[in-house]
Specification:
- This protein has 183 residues and is mostly helical.
- The protein contains 7 helices and 2 strands.
- The chain has a two-stranded antiparallel ribbon.
Length: 183
């Protein structure tokens, strides 16, 4: 009987040590920077992603680039943060997932585009080739705009991203739900 009584505390101590080790490993990362960015991308996506018929690694990396590096939410979500969750007001941060990346943010005479998937699953209605062209050249894809240069979009910086990075961003944008701009 004494053995049974001793087993429970040993099991609990073992579990505690195991969980502590896992927690430390998570803080340190896997040692593979690409895998760490992919994992972090899934952790920080403010919306549920669809992985069906998608490259999981590209979706995770794309989320990391969109949400941790690119700051796409700041311009393409209106308002950027949920009510009561604006970090610039000293509030706990929570992205406005209801209108996430749906555009509608005003910058003088310019309005940010909705970059969520359209009815055909294309982000902003663009194919991957068209998306890369916009990021590389800065030319507005809207024919009504006559290919004018985008004035607010930081394409001169983003054009330096690798093809794989742009493909990852595109794959992430294909994987998020469609949304409409906020009020």
């Amino acid at each position: 009987m004494n053995r049974k009584k001793l087993i429970v505390p040993f099991v609990l101590v073992g579990l505690s040590l195991g969980l502590a080790a896992l927690s430390q490993e998570e803080k340190r990362g896997s040692g593979d920077p690409e895998a760490d960015r992919i994992a972090r991308g899934f952790q920080i996506s403010p919306v549920k992603v669809t992985l069906r018929n998608r490259d999981r690694n590209l979706v995770g990396l794309g989320s990391y680039l969109v949400n941790a590096v690119g700051g796409c939410n700041d311009c393409h979500t209106n308002p950027s943060y949920a009510p009561g969750h604006d970090p610039f007001m000293g509030q706990p941060k929570q992205v406005n997932s209801a209108h996430y990346l749906a555009g509608g943010q005003q910058f003088g005479p310019f309005t940010s585009a909705n970059i969520t998937p359209d009815e055909h699953g294309l982000p902003a209605g663009l194919t991957l080739a068209q998306f890369k062209n916009v990021i590389r050249t800065g030319h507005d894809p809207d024919p009504a705009e006559g290919g004018r240069l985008l004035q607010v979009m930081p394409w001169p910086t983003y054009q330096n991203m690798t093809d794989n990075d742009l493909r990852a961003i595109y794959e992430y944008l294909r994987s998020i739900p469609h949304a409409e701009p906020g009020p």
